[in-house]
Design goal:
Strand order of the largest sheet: 2-1-4-5-7-8-9
CATH superfamily: Alpha/Beta hydrolase fold, catalytic domain
Oligomer: single chain
Largest sheet: 7 strands, parallel
CATH class: Alpha Beta
Radius of gyration: 16 Å
Shape: globular
Number of domains: 1
Helix content: 25-40%
């Protein structure tokens, strides 16, 4: 059985995956949802700590594992999977897909911060940016569950890019208000294949069944298209 490890994005916690986990379990997949230490009530950890947490979790699994990162989660999965022998595929869901020596700052073309201590401000208008296609009540509940995120997590650069050696899929969310689709397209060009979903930044909440079916299709696909191909 394939284990799908779901890695949450910035300001989030593993509970955000509950609806998608239910759908993936129904399709016969096991799941893991590790908590990144860079997000929480009083976090101080950086991206390398997040990657180490994921690497430790991967070491407890015999495989095969499909490692999925959402949004910021794409950065630590890129580093963590580089030293793992049981990851069959990487999935970037509306996620940052850095190369070696890149960070979230790098990918946005923003200068590195002089001070990496402290917390990174929450994205402007999170209800619209993160949950624009959710009903008001559900979106408000999701916003209420957001936690703090460290500057270090966004500033630290990855030491290795696992997607250069492990087949990868990029799922572009076509009406995303958090990570512009144009930036997603640019990063997705590095992936072995590109998939697309209509809708906003958090399809695991707005369309979990459709997303689970797409993940299932990717997991079960035996072929590995050449970089830059689309589906």
């Amino acid at each position: 059985m394939t284990t799908v490890m779901l890695v949450h994005g910035a300001w989030h916690q593993p509970t955000t995956w509950a609806k998608l986990e239910t759908e993936l379990h129904a399709l016969g997949h096991a799941t893991r949802t590790p908590a990144l230490p860079s997000a929480g009530e009083h976090p101080t950890s950086g991206m390398h700590d997040d990657a180490a947490t994921l690497a430790a979790e991967l070491a407890t699994l015999s495989g095969p594992v499909v490692l999925l990162g959402h949004s910021y989660g794409g950065i630590p999965i890129t580093e963590a999977a580089a030293g793992a022998g049981n990851v069959d595929r990487l999935i970037y869901l509306a996620a940052y897909m850095p190369d070696k020596e890149q960070s979230m700052y790098t990918l946005h073309g923003i200068p590195d911060p002089e001070d990496t201590d402290g917390l990174f401000p929450l994205v402007d208008e999170p209800r619209t940016a993160l949950y624009g296609d959710l009903p008001d009540a559900e979106a408000e509940q999701a916003v209420s569950r957001l936690v703090n995120q460290t500057v270090r997590s966004f500033a630290e650069k990855v030491d290795a890019a696992a997607w250069r050696n492990i087949p990868s899929s990029y799922i572009i969310t076509e009406q995303d208000k958090a990570i512009p689709p144009a930036l997603q397209e640019q990063m997705a060009a590095q992936a072995a294949e590109i998939r697309r979903l209509p809708g906003g930044h958090s399809p695991f909440l707005s369309q979990p069944r459709r997303l689970a079916a797409l993940i299932d299709e990717i997991v079960r696909s035996a072929s590995t298209p050449m970089p830059g191909s689309t589906a």
